[in-house]
Amino acid sequence: MPIRTAQAFLDRYWDRKLPVDPVAIAHAAGVKVIGEALGTLAGKFEIVEGISGGPVISYNVLDPTLRQRFTIAHELGHYALQHGARFRDSTQSFSLANYDPVEAAANKFAAELLMPAAVVNGLINKRNITDFNTLAQLFNVSSVAMKYRLKNLGWL
């Protein structure tokens, strides 16, 4: 479900340029994106009430840019998957012992949104781009995120 939902968002809102711009996709979907200092929190998704209210993603401007991109895509996943308001834990507090299927679904959505399987597979199969650092640069994601993506797609 998260992957199909991300693909639907890409089909509807993506301009087909790399790297995928999660802010542009969020805006096209009617979601506000706000950068602010959030302390140890990476990001949050909430529905704001009122005249100018609606869905809002906040991300931590103090985080590295690549982390911000993933956080925005992750929080957009909460919106797209209709999870309701969510607060994302910091990377320091993440633990496999605290596995949350809702957070895992938002991560799968984010990975597909930022690194669409069809595009990753096409670059590997058609352009023979096999270096994960090169792929990470093309998609503007961390090399660690790209390694996970390639592993999940069966390339590693």
Automatic annotation (TrEMBL):
InterPro entries: IrrE_HExxH, Rad_response_metalloprotease. Residues 29-151 form the IrrE N-terminal-like domain. This is IrrE N-terminal-like domain-containing protein. It comes from Cupriavidus laharis.
